[in-house]
Specification:
This protein is of the alpha/beta class. It contains 9 helices and 5 strands, in the order βαβααααβαβααβα. The structure holds adenosine monophosphate.
């Protein structure tokens, strides 16, 4: 059972890599961006509040994002009492072969405050973050990818102007979160400037090592 958090600026390929890793390692993939887009599509009260903020490329309020994350973490478990102080994904305890081997959280935390909230949620579930992966892509390459993505993406927040704003926010608000994890020794920075498969190979090697070391403990 391993818990991963993945980071990357818009254009770094964070969502794509999270999806590939979830498939390869049988991880539960929780993307706060996807959870929010689902709420928007279903026009729920949370979705209606989030829509304009997301379209501008700003950060949605913690009340909404944390509620969605908390719900996703609990919904995927079949624990009779989600507040019980046990690991809700423990395969051995609950004997469910379909329980994921771990989870990968993509899009959260985006601020130091959110990082502290995640720690609090995980503590309640008696879990801990095993590895924080930051996909690093040089600014020029991000800009090149943004041009490409803006031309083909159907997302309202994928216009060039909005993506630039999202990169600025990433630099201002999310980079300090990486420092937070760097200090606690959990951060691994991966070169994401190449092809998807290349980056994926690098992340897989790191995670295999993390799992190996964890299994030996
Ligand atoms: P993403 O798919 O991760 O790029 O997220 C798309 C958008 O969803 C972001 O630009 C934010 O508006 C919103 N969002 C996703 N995750 C968070 C979060 N942890 N905190 C605040 N807003 C978020």
């Amino acid at each position: 059972m391993i818990n991963i958090v993945i980071f990357g600026a818009p254009g770094a390929g964070k969502g794509t890599q999270a999806q590939l890793l979830a498939e390869k390692f049988d991880f539960l993939h929780i993307s706060t961006g996807d959870l929010l887009r689902q709420e928007v599509a279903m026009q729920t009260p949370m979705g209606l509040r989030a829509k304009a903020i997301m379209n501008r490329g700003d950060l949605v309020g913690d009340d909404i994002v944390v509620a969605l994350l908390d719900r996703a973490l609990r919904q995927r478990s079949t624990l009779p009492n989600p507040d019980a102080a046990v690991d809700p994904w423990d395969r051995e305890l609950y004997g469910d072969p379909h329980r994921p081997e771990g989870c990968i959280i993509d899009g959260f935390p985006r601020t130091v405050q959110q990082a502290q909230t995640l720690e609090f949620i995980f503590n309640k579930l008696q879990r801990k973050i095993d590895c924080v992966v930051a996909i690093d892509v040089p600014h020029d390459e991000l800009v090149r990818r943004i041009h490409e993505r803006a031309a083909i993406s159907g997302r309202a927040d994928d216009t060039e102007e909005v993506i630039r704003h999202r990169i600025e926010l990433y630099d201002q608000q999310t980079q300090p979160v990486l420092d937070y994890y760097r200090v606690s020794g959990m951060l691994v920075t991966i070169d994401g400037s190449g092809e998807i498969a290349e980056t994926n190979g690098r992340i897989c090697k790191t995670l295999e090592l993390v799992m190996h070391l964890k299994a030996k403990r």
